[in-house]
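Priority: low. Protein: Cytochrome c oxidase subunit I. Input follows.
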Amino acid sequence: MAAHEAHAPHDAHGHHHHEEGFISKYIFSQDHKMIGKQFLMTAVFMGVVAMLLSILFRIQLAWPGEQSDFLSFFLGETWAPGGVMKESMYLGLVTIHGTIMVFFLLTGGLSGTFSNLLIPLQIGARDMASGMLNMLSYWMFLASSLIMLFSLFIETGPASSGWTIYPPLSALPQAIEGSGLGMTMWLVSMTIFIASSLLGSLNYIVTIFNLRTKGMKMTRLPLTIWAFFITAILGVLSFPVLLSAALLLMMDRLAGTSFYLSDIIVGSEMLENHGGSPLLYQHLFWFLGHPEVYIVLLPALGLTSEIISTNSRKPIFGYRAMIGSILAIGFLSFIVWGHHMFITGMNPFIGSVFVFTTLLIAIPSAVKVFNYITTIWRGSNIYTPAMLFSVGLVSTFITGGVTGIILADSALDIAVHDTYFVIAHFHIVMGMSAVFGMFAGVYHWFPKMYGKMLNTRLGYAHFWVTIVGAYGVFFPMHFVGLAGAPRRYYDYSVYGEFDTNAQEMIMDLNVIITIFAIIAAFGQLIFLFNFFYSIYRGPKAVQNPWKSNTLEWTTPVEHVHGNWPGAIPEVHRWPYDYSKPGASEDFIPQIVPLGPGEEGDH
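Result:
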């Protein structure tokens, strides 16, 4: 697969660079590095919004019915009369928080940012296969983000049926206020987002296949590129299914069809819908929804592989096993979606099949964890902020994975299904792990993005506040769930169904969780200050600050459209030649030719 020949037209214009104006450089840029930074900035802004929404509804859960100037300031009299949040707004905040975190922060912040930044740099390409499609991908992402944000400000409020938007609630505009225009805007936003993701994913796949430099075999690719590659394939195969689910839902809402509706009474009115099934939507949604977990996780795991190997000054342990685990996770992620539906009346035999496939996916996940631990073991570890967040990811991936085994078993899942136990599980295994991977990536590749260095001490402070705050939020949720607290309840103090002791425990833990959430939110201000201050005032970066082997560190600190001012370097070895016996230094970049009798690959 000597795809490097596709470089010929790129090399022709690789040497001369014209001055770009503000609009062509920052707005309509087709440079993959700028587009990566645009994705990052947008994702960070959306993440701040989602974090604020979570603080608002956590205040309601900790101190239900109490007046709050904070709620009054952000929500106004319409949605928090007298400083007390309305139930409909609570549901809206939970819905938009979940949607932003899963799609706009984690998908955009990881795939959008790092696939764009690193794929051409690490495979030795001038740019993406199509700069125009890349630019369109970002602008559609931005448009979908803005529509989702604007839905918070309409008179009837945002979508309010949870981030999974199950029908029939989401299919009936007359059901509740949040099923009206806000729900329609949610669907429009997600349709544009899916189009953006498909454009990006196709671009990533074509670039990795066709634009690798000379010598860059598939078995010499960094594990980051393997992770982005499989992630892109997952996106191409699964996102169209969510698009079809959303379009059918839109038709039920606006065109009188009955894909998801049957024999429903709203108020005292019997609707004329017959023959549909809300379970059809669940099948379509979760067919995307579980690959989406790995669309979010795999890039974070790939970044972590690179960072751990670089900072432990050791070759990554089990390179081929890591590739195999990525491929296995990608395949298995498509045949586990039914574990979200164990209590829908699913045939027990089909349920047992999903139990088996879900437990099976723990094996390649465990391979990755063991490989990380073995790489760190007895390494000359350098604990940069990026390395700390990578180790944090390994911690959360293990912690969340253990509870995943409980939820994978249908007999055990029934007891805690749709409780806070589930929220605790996926926030730790997916949310925290992916966010930690994103932070690790920002700390590690910030010098490549902006030519400056982040403040290390602020990075350490950010890590410790974040990991303590995040575990303080999500670990107690397991006990809230085991006490029987269902998710998405507005006020746990008014339900007589709970045992009195359990109710008191739920209320007390909600206060603790909210305090930790506020602490963790303040911790992110450290990161935001460090990030924006360092862009303008940080110390200038050297070309290869981490003494890393991959190709991106052979490009100049100053950005060049085309990445390398001269010819694209040729690759002679795999990317993890660290601490090689007999070498003069503890790293050997991929562009260094092999010595006499030296084996270049693992």
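Residues 31-263+273-553 form a domain with the Cytochrome C Oxidase; Chain A fold (CATH 1.20.210.10). The first strand starts at residue 265 and ends at 266.
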